[in-house]
Design goal:
The chain has 23 helices and 28 strands. Strand 7 and strand 8 form a beta hairpin. By secondary structure, the protein is α/β, with parallel strands linked by helices. The radius of gyration is 31 Å and the shape is globular. Strands 9-10-11-12-13-14-15-16-17-18-19-21-24-26-27-28 form a 16-stranded parallel β-sheet. Strands 2-3-4-1-5 form a 5-stranded parallel β-sheet, sandwiched between helices. The relative contact order is 0.05.
Length: about 750
């Protein structure tokens, strides 16, 4: 078996482990469709040593819709020996038989004998109750092995130590499998090896993709270097497209039997380009604006998105690309076979249509009646035939420009798409605000890249929930002062998320001005952090403040710090990110800014990120008693000075701590007891002067990451002893140097 030999040996050892009075044990193989579960199970089933160990064996495939009696009959037929039954039993087996009769005969065949039953492709999490409970308990190390795509099924039917997640193949295993399937025993021509490795890598470690692509390549008469290079260069090559089409039947049940509420979320992940790493918070905003999320009372869109993604992960149809060190999903996505399936199914059911080329735009049958268009090449708007074709789809509710950023303006046919609810056009540059947008009164989500101002008639978009505007940084200049958004922004009561880069909220113009639904306000300056503003956004949960330090600031100028004066008015604030642009790090001073009223931060704060302030480390004690603070990120000299001493009882609930780019030299705990009792992840990066790191963290510590820090810091804590102690507690200790 090419690849997975390590898992084969591990599972084989568990199947063959013999002990006295050992009861029936179930083992599971879990993983996405095409990962090799069935192949691995068959390899185990046919292994000579396993065949010799188990007197009775059966291998039965269930599938999502199985007949109970058929499965019982298949198990009995495979496990039966003539000596096990009499003539009456044989006659019963040959005719129409009840499940009770089949169960009696099956138990008669298995009783007193060591057996191995393989149940392949299990979808029902109660299979243990339906089948395994019927097998006799002989106390002789009998085993039941089953394969499943569903993590919940695997967990329900086996204990944690007998659940095996079938892994993806690595690059070497992928190439070995592809080469074997294409050339069999014949050596691969040397000139094809580089392209072959790339083709294998593009199969993303999925055995079914590798085998299918290999079959197509082996049947092709063209085995020239030019042809293989062409296949290797693009996953949209016909070889891969044909392979995904051939895999469709195997993959489709993973979509077909998803719970109904998960199907639109799954399909929607394919609106992005192939292999795109989707930012978690972009999904939060889009899924919520589309109305996909099922939120219970008091649930947030973030939690609902996390829960939905977790269900997709548990069904093995989506994957996490990157997690933060505090174990939060940062980016996610789809493997190529599922991305192809989603695009095909979405086009068929008029859920969305992806447009990559001019040819895609000209197939009217695929465009007619579509609710969403995904423009993966923004140049298409500049081609008249494509423009006219897109403009003709009057049913479109969402226009998603998900292709690469296009630095030149193109005409977008907004005047024809009057039913739009979602306009995601961050990858298109607008020199001026597109006037046609104000006619799209159904808009819930608007994102674009704009160099002009937001007009006052933006308030006509009374349904708008998300307003996101980026700037073209090559054109925008900063004089240290941000322009205000139009006063009419206070009339947009449905707003939930406001991020207009380089613009501020004006002070409200009348007593009843209120944004009751605004939960996220990003990239504002201290000009927006007034008492009047904060009192009119009572449900704000996430705030991002940008402080610009300009050459005309005096060293004693503390006006930028006024942003902290009124944050205590935000009773529901959970996340605060405050960063200085061009921070004044003065080598001759310990503090770049005057001391700040950090003690005024609200007790509701869960996540705090500070950057570029240059506060003295003793100022950190002002936030050390925040009762809900779990994540603290200190970047780019947020605090400075050689010494930081943590005192008893500080940061009682802190779970994640990041210290990055500072002149800290000695970090100590005041007494010998354990500190930061709830800390799970510690990350220290680019602290070149750091010589002393505390060792006595609480028992919850799971991860330590040190990147480009002073080697003396490692010497002083006795790395070998510490490594042994941490690993003994299951702590993941990572030390990296860019100069190694």
């Amino acid at each position: 078996m090419v690849g997975l030999s390590d898992q084969f040996e591990k599972i084989k050892a568990k199947l063959m482990r013999i002990s006295e009075d050992d009861e029936v044990k179930t083992l599971s193989l879990a993983g996405m469709a095409g990962i090799g579960k069935t192949a691995l199970a068959k390899k185990l089933y046919r292994d000579p040593e396993i065949s010799d160990l188990f007197e009775r064996r059966a291998f039965v495939t269930l599938g999502p819709k199985f007949q109970f009696e058929r499965v019982l009959r298949d198990i009995t037929t495979q496990a039966i020996e003539r000596e096990d039954v009499d003539d009456e039993d044989l006659q019963t087996m040959e005719g129409e038989t009840s499940s009770d009769a089949l169960t009696r005969i099956m138990r008669k065949c298995l009783t007193g004998r060591r057996y191995l039953i393989v149940l392949d492709d299990v979808w029902n999490f109660k299979v243990n109750d339906q089948f395994v409970s019927l097998f006799p308990e002989n106390n002789n190390c009998s085993r039941v092995l089953f394969t499943t795509r569903l993590e919940e099924v695997a967990k329900y039917n086996s204990s944690w130590f007998s659940k095996h997640d079938v892994r993806f193949l690595n690059k070497k295993e992928s190439w070995d499998l592809l080469r074997q399937k294409v050339f069999d025993e014949t050596p691969c021509p040397h000139e094809l090896e580089e392209a072959g490795n790339k083709i294998a890598e593009n199969c993303e470690g999925i055995p079914l993709t590798i085998v299918t692509v290999a079959d197509i390549l082996s049947r092709s008469n063209d085995k020239t270097l030019e042809y293989w290079n062409m296949v290797a260069a693009n996953k949209q090559n016909s070889v891969f497209i044909d392979a995904y089409e051939q895999m469709f039947e195997v993959l489709y049940p993973s979509y077909e039997y998803l719970p109904q509420h998960l199907k639109p979320c799954f399909l929607y992940m394919a609106v992005f380009p192939q292999n795109y790493e989707i930012p978690f918070y972009k999904l939060v905003r889009l899924w919520n604006a589309e109305g996909f999320l099922e939120m219970g009372f008091l649930e947030t869109p973030e939690y609902a998105t996390w829960f939905t993604l977790d269900q997709l992960y548990m069904n093995n149809v989506a994957t996490v690309h990157e997690k933060s060190l505090n174990d939060i999903t940062k980016t996610c996505g789809l493997y190529s076979p599922f991305w192809h399936l989603c695009n095909k199914e979405a086009t068929k059911i008029k859920f969305f249509r992806g447009l990559n080329t001019l040819d895609h735009c000209l197939v009217q049958e695929d465009l007619k009646g579509q609710r969403r268009l995904c423009i993966r090449n923004n140049v298409l708007f500049g081609i008249k035939d494509a423009y006219d074709s897109i403009a003709s789809v009057s049913t479109v509710r969402s226009l998603l420009c998900t292709g690469p950023y296009h630095q030149y303006p193109v005409p977008v046919c907004l005047e024809y798409l009057r039913l739009l609810r979602i306009l995601d056009a961050l990858t298109i540059l607008f020199y001026e605000f597109p006037m046609q947008v104000t006619n799209l009164v159904r808009l819930r989500y608007l994102s674009l890249t704009l160099n002009g101002d937001i007009p006052d008639f933006i308030s006509k978009l009374w349904n708008l929930q998300y307003l996101i505007v980026h700037r073209c940084l090559s054109i925008v200049e900063s004089d240290g002062k941000s322009p205000y958004l139009p006063m009419e922004i206070w009339d947009m009561e449905e707003l939930k998320h406001l991020h207009v880069m380089g613009s501020d909220l004006p002070d409200p113009h009348c007593e009843d001005s209120l944004l009751p639904n605004l939960s996220t306000l990003l990239d504002v300056s201290p000009q927006s952090c007034t008492k009047d503003v904060f009192e009119r956004i009572p449900n704000l949960r996430k705030l991002g403040i940008r402080i610009e330090s300009t050459p005309d600031n005096n060293d004693d100028d503390d006006k930028p710090l006024c942003c902290f004066d009124h944050i205590s008015n935000l009773d529901n604030l959970e996340t605060l990110k405050c960063a200085t642009v061009n921070p004044r790090i003065m080598l001759s001073k310990v503090v770049a800014w005057p001391p700040t009223p950090l003690h005024c931060l609200p007790s509701s704060l869960v996540t705090l990120s500070l950057s570029g302030f240059g506060f003295a480390w003793k100022e950190l004690s002002k936030i050390s008693s925040l009762p809900n603070l779990r994540v603290l990120k200190l970047k780019r000299y947020a605090f400075r000075g050689p010494d930081w001493e943590v005192c008893d009882g500080e940061f009682p609930c802190l779970q994640y701590l990041l210290i990055e780019d500072t002149d800290l030299k000695n970090w100590t705990f005041r007494s010998r007891s354990y500190y930061l009792p709830r800390l799970e992840s510690l990350v220290v990066r680019h602290c070149y002067k750091l010589e002393d790191i505390p060792q006595k963290f609480g028992s919850h510590l799971k991860k330590i990451e040190l990147v480009d820090c002073n080697p003396l810091a490692l010497d002083c804590i006795d790395l070998e002893k510490t490594t042994s102690r941490y690993k003994g507690r299951g702590v993941d200790l990572s030390v990296r140097y860019s100069w190694d």
